[in-house]
Amino acid sequence: MLATQPKEVLMRLTVDGQEIEVDAEPDMPLLWALRDLAGKTGPKFGCGVAACGACTVVIDGQPVRSCSLPVGDVTGSVTTIEGLAVDGKLHPVQQAWLEEQVAQCGYCQAGQIMSAYALLEEIENPTDEDIDNAMGGNLCRCGTYPRIRAAIKRAANLKLARA
């Protein structure tokens, strides 16, 4: 008996505020649909098993590991790091990351920033414990964790100042 190939399906997604169509197999990881089909290269492939956080995007306010979520299961609006800056103005999290000089190699930064963004959307002024809980699944092999914490606190202040 011949095995049949999975069928590609035209799916509609809302990514960074725009509705897009992707022609993909429903079990394709969202990460690859974003990178290969939608041209959103901010989310990175790190581990492929949702353990490192490099692929983190935000779906309806919740940080999600896009490497393990089938694109066919996506409901809601997807935000990638490319969707944070508005009219050329950096989001407070991005601005704080620069000001605190967080990035070293930079590979994990998009995932880190997206988790921090989701945290600050939920908790206006997070405690150290809130930050630890929200960022615990994002790994940084350069070990910039103290700078990440400082950037999140700075971003909270920047966000409050803009409000």
TrEMBL record:
Superkingdom per UniProt: Bacteria
Keywords per UniProt: 2Fe-2S, Iron, Iron-sulfur, Metal-binding, Oxidoreductase
InterPro entries on file: 2Fe-2S-bd, 2Fe-2S-bd_dom_sf, 2Fe-2S_ferredoxin-like_sf, 2Fe-2S_ferredoxin-type, 2Fe2S_fd_BS, Beta-grasp_dom_sf, Diverse_Oxidoreductases
MF term (GO), any: metal ion binding
Gene3D superfamilies: 3.10.20.30, [2Fe-2S]-binding domain
PROSITE patterns in the cross-refs: 2FE2S_FER_1 (PS00197), 2FE2S_FER_2 (PS51085)
Pfam families noted in UniProt: Fer2, Fer2_2
The keyword Oxidoreductase is annotated on this UniProt entry: yes
Residue ranges constituting the 2Fe-2S ferredoxin-type domain according to the UniProt record: 9-84
Annotated protein name in UniProt: Isoquinoline 1-oxidoreductase, alpha subunit
Organism for this UniProt entry: Mesorhizobium australicum
